[in-house]
Write a structure and sequence with these properties.
By secondary structure, the protein is an alpha+beta fold. The protein has helices at residues 7-17, 71-80, 131-141, 201-210, 264-274, 326-334; strands at residues 2-6, 32-38, 41-47, 51-57, 60-63, 65-70, 85-91, 94-98, 103-107, 127-130, 156-162, 165-171, 175-180, 186-188, 194-200, 217-222, 226-230, 234-239, 258-263, 283-288, 294-301, 305-312, 314-316, 320-325, 340-345, 352-356, 362-366. The strands form four sheets. A nine-stranded antiparallel beta sheet has the order 6-2-3-4-18-17-16-10-14. Helix 1 runs antiparallel to helix 2. The chain is elongated, with a radius of gyration of 25 Å.
Length: 371
């Protein structure tokens, strides 16, 4: 293999595959990346066996070939080079790196020992996302997910499509976020009737990290046990979590007894300030008193002290007092863009609902802390 490639193009490829490089001490080959040049294509691939990312690079192929090289060493060399033009040449299992003022040789491994990357047999995508929407909606939902060995079904992003409705859902059992995607944000193929898959959390975060926020598209291919997200320059192959996602819709309140409408940014600021005095369980109290015109946000810590913050609100229903995990409450407020949000409450031990006044397609549900 002999190539001439620009530094920025190479760095972009290494950035794409970085988080999928394996750390398994029993399989040291996973700490390597596979460099391949054939059929007028240059590609670099990394895998941790659960997730595989391939990035297609632009460059000049003088001789075809493939080689397996340590990712960390190669990445550190490339990002510190001062020259823009880089020549890469394979010599048996060694890779020679050469610029106008630098030269190095990396000892690689037999490329045949690198794990076989799974291929998707399905030839037609089930969904085609517009990237600028895909990244935005994914970021708003994935905040509610959390990795769990005990409950793998909540350790990812639930993608659900049926009857011309597409939803992203995530939950950690203490909170839940659901986004119904607008029709202009995706395309559905004619053969697609129903989709119910759980994409692992790490894969979802990788999609968020490496997919560009532009006008290009990402195609979703679904096989029996794995999925492929295909972009203009990347193939992201991931396993599917083989579990049934919880019947989450029963958790979302259909109506609420009490509802306050509050300025979202002022609520965020007040939580950040009062949370300085919260205890180890991150508890913060929200209370509407007799005058029903102000929300009192209160926190206390036995070793530090206490503080309170008053915010003007519009109240529907009677006065109330409820305790939340302030981090979860803050996360729910941050995913909205509107000036005002509503917080609907049904009781101190029942799910609360945050939503925007103008946009009903995004909902955030969180459980109170029992005081």
């Amino acid at each position: 293999m002999k190539l001439i490639i620009l530094k920025n193009n190479l760095l972009e490829g290494l950035f794409s595959v970085e988080k999928s490089v394996g750390e398994n001490s029993n399989l040291p080959i996973l700490k390597n990346v596979l460099f391949l040049a054939e059929n007028n294509k240059i590609k670099i691939t990394a895998t941790n066996l659960d997730l595989a990312v391939t990035h297609y690079l632009s460059g000049k192929i003088i001789e075809e070939g493939k080689i397996c090289i340590p990712f960390s060493l190669f990445y550190n060399i490339v990002k510190n080079l001062s020259s823009e033009r880089i020549q890469l040449e394979q010599r048996n299992h060694h890779l020679n790196i050469k610029t106008d003022n630098y030269e190095a040789t990396i000892y690689g491994q037999n490329s045949e020992d690198f794990p076989i990357i799974p291929t998707i047999k399905v030839k037609e995508p089930s969904l085609i996302f517009k990237n600028k929407y895909f990244k935005e909606f994914l970021s708003k939902v994935i905040i509610a997910a959390q990795y769990s060995e005990v409950r793998p079904e909540i350790s990812g992003l639930f993608i659900y499509y049926q009857d011309n409705i597409l939803k992203f859902v995530a939950t950690d059992s203490f909170r839940l976020a659901e986004k119904t995607l607008p029709l202009e944000s995706y395309k559905i193929t004619k053969k697609t009737e129903k989709i119910k898959i759980i994409v692992p959390l790490k894969t979802a975060f990788e999609l968020l990290r490496i997919i560009k926020n532009n006008d290009s598209e990402t195609e979703l291919f679904i096989d029996s046990h794995q999925v492929l997200f295909k972009t203009e320059n990347q193939d992201i192959v991931s396993r599917i979590i083989d579990s049934e996602f919880p019947d989450y819709e029963t958790v979302i309140p259909k109506e609420t007894k009490f509802e306050i409408i509050v300025n979202r940014q002022e609520m965020i600021n007040s939580i950040r300030l009062t949370s300085i005095f919260t205890s180890r369980i991150n508890d913060i109290t929200l209370k509407v008193g007799d005058n029903k015109k102000f929300l009192e946000i209160f926190a206390t810590e036995s070793q530090l002290g206490e503080n309170r913050y008053l915010i003007p609100v519009k109240l529907k229903g009677e006065k109330f007092s409820i305790v939340f995990n302030w981090r979860y409450l803050l996360d729910g407020l941050k995913i909205y863009d509107s000036e005002e949000v509503s917080l609907g409450i049904n009781g101190v031990d029942k799910p609360a609902l945050i939503k925007a006044l103008e946009d009903k397609s995004l909902v955030y549900v969180l459980m109170p802390i029992k005081s």
